[in-house]
Design brief:
With 43 residues, the protein is an all-alpha fold. Helices cover 67% and strands 0% of the residues. It is built from three helices and no strands. The protein is globular and about 25 Å long.
Length: 43
């Protein structure tokens, strides 16, 4: 899952919203066990 951590460090231009809601937010909530509010603040 290192690629997701790398993705968190990469500015997203194309398909950024899709990537946030389909990959990053679920990862932060389910794997890193953050609250939804914390996940959206990070992403």
């Amino acid at each position: 899952m290192d690629w997701i951590e790398n993705l968190l460090q990469t500015p997203l231009e194309d398909y950024g919203k899709y990537c946030l809601w389909r990959i990053l937010i679920p990862y932060l909530v389910n794997i890193r066990k953050l609250k939804a509010e914390e996940a959206t603040a990070i992403a």
